[in-house]
Amino acid sequence: VPPYQDVPCPGQASSMEKEAVALAVVEPTVDAKASAVSTGGCEFHTEPTNQGYFWDPSCEQGMLGCSADGRNVECRFCGSGVYSSVPCPASVVCHFPSSPMVPYFWDSTCFLGMLGCKADGIHLQCRFCGDSIYSSIQCPSGMTGPSTGACTFGQHPGTPYFWDSSCRHGMLGCLADGIHEQCRFCGQGPYAQVPCPAYQLCSFATEPSAPYYWDPHCFVGKLGCKADGIHAQCRFCGAPPYQDVLCPGQASSKALLGLSDLRSAAVFGTDIAEISITREYRPVVQQVLASHIAAAARAIVRDRLTR
Questions:
Q1: Cα angle 222, 129, 115; round to 5
Q2: 260 pLDDT higher than 80
Q3: In this predicted model, what pLDDT tens digit does every residue of 189-201 receive, in sequence order?
Q4: What's the CA gap between 148 and 194, in Å, rounded?
């Protein structure tokens, strides 16, 4: 926290590590939140942070979730609690200040500290999936993909590239085509620390049920590689028959801990087993584990204080 924001806490990713992951998600500003309140015509005095809502023209008085703001019958609650039977359209309900480069969806089972949840920094149920450190989270058919543009190369480069809306002048790999700042190199050579988003680079005729990611160390014949039949670096992971290929951010079965184990680790100082993940994702996974342990410790303290 200021004025010590340049001193990372243990388990906290540095600004350089966060840039390497390049998820392009920041906590919305006051203006962004104010804009979100009026999205779709709903008029709330206070943004309902733990409850999804959207504008549903089919709403009628008395229908579940309708008249959510108490003013407009078309304003409808969805996706959790008593409104869990009303599906939330993530593209409308999640409020990002800028388009993320990772797919996302509305997951009513989310809880604080669960991987990928609270993706937009506002709604707990807004969840990342299917790419980067979220490859182990299977995207449903109703997920929302990142908005993309088109790089323009005179000649196709040998280095992988993708469209990153978070790119800013001077960021590693950006302005790859010399025209568009959002066109970004990734995954090899001097850009090896910039993870390639498999969602944009793999080319499937039909989206597979198994998770996949972009592995720059893949070669034809290696388990899970050439998953799309085109790119050797496109790799299946985390699901049979590729369960031995760990998705980025996924712990091995030996290292996988339940919530009770995390609580024990937090209170009694139990060591967490080594997690087999690629180097570029280790700081982020450490941050995720640290947040789990901290949350578990707080819960136990509260439990003991209330006894």
A1: 100
A2: no
A3: 899 889 888 877 8
A4: 17
